[in-house]
Design brief:
single chain, about 350 residues, alpha/beta, Rossmann fold, 2 domains, 6-stranded mixed beta sheet, 4-stranded parallel beta sheet, 10 strands
């Protein structure tokens, strides 16, 4: 239980924290990887930690169905479908993206898991219509927010931070900086809050991988959204929370918006380069949408000197493996990797 909330435990925790010796030697840093890609349902990923809390809440409310939303290739949607299947619930995913023309990557896994995907023109009206359809059929629908990122979902990564802090202390690397991807913000803020909660010495660097809507810079728009999330967390948890609303303005958040490359889930050569590098040095696969951009930040900042020689760095691997099979990423990689095929 954390901050008064319980979960249903279905993960094999803790996930490993392993040293990446080859890249450490190559870059002159001490690099470690927290393997949250190895969580144990439907190819794994970070959203499962959040879903342990959502599942408990859904079952407590008598839900018979989980509905969530996101992009057509949502990792969170796939894992919501997996948890639903494991616990005998129905599931559905709603997306305002266009149908990509083929059933691939996460869409293929959604189908294998028996989860329908609804492509809608408007998310709000589509969510309402799909929910009403299933409620009319007698289902008790529980809505899981995009990315599992709300007040409850945050707990999954507050708990991960506590777990990682214990591992780092045991390994003698509790002065490390953790690199974590910023998408829908639940993982980043959960880590930040968990580290504060357990009085950790670990530092946190967030790498934003998508542009947030708004009229300002990428950084200004991200911080405007993050402030709203922060205030909801403070209101939800009240005095049990480790921060107050006013803390937001006084905190020195270590966040980079330098690795977005202009848009969300775009095919980027620099990102593919570090994907190949990590695979060929450590046999670890990362995806081109989320973890690829974060790992690009680690490599770039080690080479530039922002990460100091010998510094301890922990890369939080949040999964996303199916992303490499989406059409635009797959075609870019196929073009680059043809020389490895011999007929």
């Amino acid at each position: 239980m954390l901050f008064g909330h319980e979960k249903i435990e279905f993960l094999h925790l803790p996930t490993p924290l392993e040293r990446l010796a080859n890249i450490s030697d190559d870059l002159g840093v001490k690099l470690y990887c927290k393997r949250d890609d190895l969580t144990n349902l439907a190819t794994g990923g970070n959203k499962l930690r959040k879903l342990e809390y959502f599942l408990k809440d859904a079952l407590d409310q008598g839900a018979t169905m989980l509905i969530t939303e996101g992009g057509a290739q949502t990792n969170h949607g796939r894992l919501t479908a997996a948890v639903a299947a494991k616990y005998g619930l129905k599931s559905a995913i709603i997306t305002a993206d266009k149908y990509p023309g083929e059933i691939n990557a996460n869409l293929l896994l959604d189908g294998i898991l028996g989860c329908p995907v609804y492509f809608v023109e408007d998310m709000e009206s589509g969510r309402k219509a799909v929910t009403q359809k299933y409620e009319a059929e007698g289902e008790r629908v529980y809505y899981v927010p995009m990315g599992g990122s709300n007040e409850l979902g945050m707990l999954g990564y507050a708990e991960c931070a506590i777990e990682l802090d214990e591992q780092a202390r045991t390994m003698g690397i509790d002065d490390s900086t953790i690199f974590v991807t910023i998408g829908s913000l639940g993982t980043y803020l959960g880590m930040l809050i968990g580290l504060k909660y357990c009085n950790s010495n670990l530092k946190l660097r967030g790498i934003n991988v998508l542009p947030y809507p708004g009229s300002g810079t990428d950084r200004e728009n991200l911080f405007a959204y993050m402030r709203g999330y922060w205030e909801r967390l403070c209101d939800f948890y009240g005095r049990a929370f480790v921060y107050a609303k006013d803390d937001f303005d006084s905190m020195d958040f270590d966040i980079s918006t330098d690795y977005i490359h202009g848009e969300y889930n775009n095919a980027v050569e620099e990102v593919r380069d570090v994907m190949y590098y990590l695979a060929r040095k450590e046999a670890i696969i990362i995806d081109p949408c989320y973890t690829g951009k974060t790992f690009e930040a680690i490599v770039s900042e080690a080479k530039s000197g922002r990460i100091k020689s010998g510094e301890n760095i922990i890369f939080l691997h949040t999964g996303g493996l199916p992303g490499i099979y989406t059409k635009h990423h797959r075609e870019a990689m196929e073009s680059e990797l043809k020389s490895y095929m011999h007929f």
